[in-house]
Amino acid sequence: MDALDVARWQFGITTVYHFILVPLTIGLAPMIAVMQTVWHVTGNEQWLRATKFFGKLFLINFALGVATGIVQEFQFGMNWSEYSRFVADVFGAPLALEGLVAFFLESTFIGLWIFGWGRLPRRVHLACIWLAAIGVNASAYFIIAANSWMQHPVGVVWDETRNRPAMNDFWAVITNNTTLAAFPHVVAGALLTAGTFVAAIGIWWMARNSWRARKLRAAIETGDTTDLPKSVSPSHIDATPEDLEDDARRLWRPVTRFALWVTIAAGIAVIITGDFQAQIMFKQQPVKMAAAESLCDSTTGGAPFSVLSVGRQNNCDNIDHIIEIPGMLSFLADHRFDTPLQGVNQLQEQYQQALNMPGQNFAPNLFVTYWAFRAMITWALGSVVVALGGLWLTRRKRVVVSRKFGLIALLMIPTPFLANSSGWIFTEMGRQPWVVAPNWQDDLDPLRIHMLVQDGVSGHSAGMVWVTLIGFTLLYGALGVIWFMLQRRYVIEGPALKDASPPDEPSDDEKSGELSFAY
Question: Per the count of CB atoms within 10 A, which of 86, 105, 107, 319 is most buried?
Fold first, then answer.
């Protein structure tokens, strides 16, 4: 492997790792703001407990997301300096806004929210979490705007003196139609992730409390409590069966139902926004979409959607389509079943002729693109299992009593995270071999305003990049273990009863300087 291959692996690994954390942060922040708003309006202390409980999980995720995200920006200047030099006049603007506006907005008000319990007026404190949620989503918007310019460059002219594009329309850059399509899809995916996360934990806690109540009541009736499992009585309260059932009914059921409806709404939004984004991609990056379906040759009529293909997927000469849906790919492209679509081979020839690069391969890796697209759809079905099962089992004021479904819900938590990561792998691998794809639609010069991946890498040796790749992998692995252990610890511990009391006055721990809420 040369330096280019290792640099691509490093950026891919660190980006996917970072983005595992991002959807939960984007989606959970507004959900926590809603929980605190419900407590503020109704005075129901159970929503305050839920706010603080999921607030802890959010802060763990946010802290690790910040730590892993910092690495991304350094890589632009170190491993991809030629790319950074080429796009500096354009790419720097949305990234600067992300740092100066969005990141400072979210980090400042998250800090005020953490330290402000019992110190700020309730309305001001509530505004802090809403402003933090706005900052989190604004940060996502500016990052997506920068990425979308790489997918579809607009708002620039060619600078002859510096031999690179120069921005002449900032508004066009940040309102790129690719951005306007991608951002709602990312937010919908984030809400799907957060909704599944909250709902699965709530389902597990309802099932757990119901089981604990049954065990404890049976032990009390028989008078034999010696064989009770340790998990029956939580460490921070002397629970009765009525306490456990009350928690399941008054705390976990309302929070879970809220999260389940968020999951359903987000799932519908993912489908709608994904359809809109696909139609744009069929026009802007037709090779990506053809590769996503292993459509090697153009069709004269409607193009089928490939459900399953076998063979050497990165070789158009050896692909067998086993299951297809006639006309469905054309429908995805423009909502018509009979629209002809161009295949990878024909698009390859067009690009070679237009750019005068007869030996260049303009097709992405068909295997990765094809299966990443299907993995994105398949993993999202885990959220469907949680949403439909949870709504059915909590109908008519019931609570979940099935420990088996509680365990299934927990096992489904990783699925929306994997769906989001698969979607980004598809988006970025499908753009290859471009790091800045040519714009064939608008009034730009596609012969100049583009960059191949191999032209953007720095001139480091492969060994130097290997050292940092191995170092980041080990560091991120250790951080991942810490993240999992902290999340697991606080999920099992659950909401504290003391969090049900309105924090109008600082507790003794807070007066002594100990930040109990943020550990």
Answer: 86
